[in-house]
Amino acid sequence: EDKKRLSYAQKLDVAEHSVARRLLETAIAKQTNLIASADVMTTAELLDLADKVGPHIVALKTHIDIITDFDPDSTILPLKDLAAKHNFMLMEDRKFADIGNTQELQFSYGIYKISNWADFVTSQVIGGYDSLNCFRNVGVVAILGMSSKGTLTDAAYQAEALKVAQSHPNVIGGVSQKQIPEELLLFTPGVSIAETGDGKGQQYNTPEKVFADLQTDFIIVGRGIYKADHPEAAALNYKIAGWNAYTASL
Ligand code: 5IU
């Protein structure tokens, strides 16, 4: 018999990082492994989406630098209230990719002050182990491989990136289109029930496929939800599909 994946409860038994623990606890409590990607352009759209999909997600992934009318008081404070109201975490998909000192500045300064509100962030590991030291108070999701056609994250890069991710205490998991060691949480974007691509290089797989083949932990869905006629219904649909696919993989 094939070795089965670890359940969220089994991962929670061994997880040490507080952010990994909260993610797993939230997934279990809300029976969801869905992360909605809010790639919208205004604060109103961001907050509307967060309120609608909030009940069905474990985390909301932001690209805060896409927001055209960003303001700490009118964007972040209500977003944090919605995260508390619906019990979801905030994942800023910043994909840091510089030396440690610059990342430290980008993380805490500028207009976005990501360290003030994000529960966890994505980062490249191309700057090496020490470049991740600045993310002391949040979890880091390391970019190991990308979903886009022609990505340069080949097998050799991914193997080296994985070594950095596995050895750094700030790292809770990785973004990848391949299976990774079970002590890291796996986050998989490029998930759609209806589409196989977007004509701009994105490549999609179904929730069933990424749980069966990659034993992923969390699916990340953007346009499949925020571009849907009814984002709340779409989120519920992906929540159910993701949870069923997870259960089937146990
Ligand atoms: N994203 C990917 N693929 C990757 C990485 C990040 O799609 O390999 I790293 C991000 C980009 C976007 C979201 O914010 O995940 C996916 O959005 P769509 O579901 O709309 O394609």
TrEMBL record:
Family label: In the N-terminal section; belongs to the purine/pyrimidine phosphoribosyltransferase family.
Active site per database record: D93, K95, D98
Native species: Marnyiella aurantia
Reactions catalysed, as given in the entry: orotidine 5'-phosphate + diphosphate = orotate + 5-phospho-alpha-D-ribose 1-diphosphate
Entry's EC annotation: 2.4.2.10
Entry binding sites for substrate: D39, K61, S147, Q202, G222, R223
Complex formation: Homodimer.
Protein name in UniProt: Orotate phosphoribosyltransferase
